[in-house]
Design goal:
Largest sheet: none
Order of helices and strands: HHH
Radius of gyration: 22 Å
Helix content: 40-55%
Bound molecules: heme C
Distance between the termini: 58 Å
Structural class: mainly alpha
Strand content: under 5%
Shape: rod-shaped
């Protein structure tokens, strides 16, 4: 049986742990960066992106303008209030 190299094994365990923590942290901050939808009538219907854009593209209402390009489903990042 080959001699176990515990020093090296522990080194790789440690590096794996760092990797997992970094990737998890990035994923968590990515999903947490977008503000939640407020609990109001106009944020109840999240079925269509077009509805969201009606209010969030032009500055005619007091709705904040979407500060990024249009990205797929809004509610993937902006979670509705429960
Ligand atoms: C009838 C107009 C209207 C529609 C439709 C609408 N919003 Fe809004 N939205 C507003 C207004 C007004 C505010 C600011 C007041 C508030 O947060 O309730 C706002 C705020 C927001 C904010 C900022 C919340 C914060 O805490 O900073 C986000 C994000 C947002 N809306 C996303 C969406 C998405 C995604 C949709 C589609 C599901 C949508 N809105 C549909 C009017 C609208
Ligand atoms: C990939 C994730 C993601 C998607 C998808 C997404 N957003 Fe955002 N959105 C963000 C992040 C992150 C911010 C905060 C940006 C900042 O603070 O600079 C933001 C900010 C906003 C704001 C400004 C909120 C404020 O308080 O000023 C509005 C409005 C908004 N998004 C609307 C939308 C709409 C409408 C859609 C769908 C077309 C959408 N978002 C899709 C991540 C996303």
């Amino acid at each position: 049986m080959a001699k176990k190299n515990t020093g090296q094994r522990n080194f790789f365990r440690f590096m794996t742990l760092i990797g997992v923590v970094v990737v998890g942290g990035l994923g968590y901050s990515f999903l947490g960066a977008a503000p939640k939808l407020s609990d109001t009538d106009f944020h109840k219907d999240t079925s269509s992106v077009e509805t969201c854009l009606k209010c969030h593209v032009h500055a005619e209402t007091k709705a904040p303008i979407m500060p990024h390009r249009q990205m797929g489903s809004c509610t993937f990042c902006h979670r509705p209030a429960a």
